[in-house]
Specification:
Blueprint: H1 13-42, E1 53-56, E2 73-76
Antiparallel strand pairs: 1-2
Length: 87
């Protein structure tokens, strides 16, 4: 099958501009996905699988439910420990 160049339909005018815009948008999308994937892989951090530990010393027995008590102890693997609504 022989095809002459004159019989080919060329994209002209607005359709050509639209085709160029679509190709440019798809190219930018592909490049951004590739860059995002490589950054996600290189910046992946190790997952901490060991939970923090908390060692509490026995508080003195409270004489009332409304009496404030002080909780003392040590934690390993945590920056901050909260008890209830206040920390």
């Amino acid at each position: 099958m022989v095809c002459a160049l004159d019989s080919l339909v060329w994209i002209t005018g607005r359709w050509r501009l639209a085709a160029i815009a679509v190709i440019a948008a798809l190219s930018i999308l592909v490049v951004s996905v590739i860059i995002g994937a490589t950054r996600a892989q290189s910046g992946a951090k190790a997952i901490d699988t060991e939970p923090p530990t908390l060692e509490l010393s026995q508080p003195p027995t409270a004489t009332s439910y409304r009496q404030p008590i002080t909780v003392r102890g040590k934690t390993t693997g945590a920056v901050r420990v909260s008890v209830g609504e206040r920390s």
